[in-house]
Amino acid sequence: MHTFLNPLHGAHVGRHEMFRGRLVDSHESPARVEHVLSEWRRRPLGELREPAMSDDELMPALRAVHEPRYLDFLRSAWDDWVALDPANAAIDALPSVWPLPNRHGFRQDGWPENIAARLGQFAFDSGTPLTAGSWVAARAGAACALSAAQAVLGGDRCAFALTRPPGHHAGPGFYGGYCFLNNAAIAAQALRDGGHARVAVLDVDYHHGNGTQTVFYERADVLTLSIHGDPRTEYPFFLGHADERGAGAGEGFNRNWPLPRGTGLAPWCAAFDEALQAVADFGATALVVPLGLDTFEGDPISGFKLRSADYAGIGAALASLKLPTVITFEGGYAVAEVGINTVNLLEGFERAA
Ligand code: OKP
Ligand code: ZN
């Protein structure tokens, strides 16, 4: 299994995020990927590649998942933020005002020009710092996910996109949860466009993959599955319930397994086994796994109780599906252990493959 490392991930460094009314240090740091990389170097599993990609090749894949006006916003948001006030160059861009849908006075045709308002037009939280390097880093990360999908289309059994910022909270026209471009969705769409008839996305991050769910919600060709903390108490709160099953042509092609805080390996695996069965029943020809390691018992912002050794078994179970597989790196904030947990899973997959 080759690893597609984002060489520009360090361009995105969030300084602070809003949490319950306070600005706090961001949990999503470059050290996360550096720890995975150093553990991977101790236990390498194939080649380490640092893909570079032209806009000509990359942009169509981004446009297949994200709205043009959202991509335009992302590319220029930092410059617009600094143009608003030169002093903004020293501060991360965070929204502080949002449109509410379905309220008198909210106009779909009356979008504001002020960047402070446009941040709220596209972001669903105030916990996702947009920085000088966010676009550059997210763009290069999407290129890693696309390269991983291309490797799998070329015959590789599995490919790992090692990148940050993560992606699974980013939707067609929205960002949040530290995510700007949905790397897993971009890989899934690339697999579809490369000839796979049915692609399954099995999200094992602690947080519901609300972005990925939204991208594919009305489609029957991409099955989206997510196992996560119950949105009644856990971020991202407004999506991820068990009764969200897809809509229109996509009815029946989305499934969620919300689990309570404190969930340990056995009940987590019961949900995981159902999800694996759903992938098999769907007749998937390829698999994408948004891999969050924030299900770990030591994670500072999450509530499940998985242990480091458990990840090898999860990797082996994923491999048992016998599908061409793209794995994208998502959450995991216990920085000292995130490398061990990640490589445990990859090694478990590789040994069982
Ligand atoms: C992104 B991913 C922490 C509050 C929670 C959002 C968490 C985003 C998780 N101060 N902030 O799914 O791991
Ligand atoms: Zn997460």
TrEMBL record:
Xref: SUPFAM superfamilies: Arginase/deacetylase (SSF52768)
Cofactor(s) this protein cannot do without: Zn(2+)
Record carries keyword Metal-binding: yes
Record domain Histone deacetylase: where: 28-339
Keywords, sorted A to Z: Hydrolase, Metal-binding, Zinc
Gene Ontology terms describing biological process: epigenetic regulation of gene expression
InterPro entries: HDACs, His_deacetylse_dom, His_deacetylse_dom_sf, Ureohydrolase_dom_sf
Gene Ontology MF term list: histone deacetylase activity; hydrolase activity; metal ion binding
Superkingdom assignment: Bacteria
Membership in a protein family: Belongs to the histone deacetylase family.
Name this polypeptide is given: Acetylpolyamine aminohydrolase
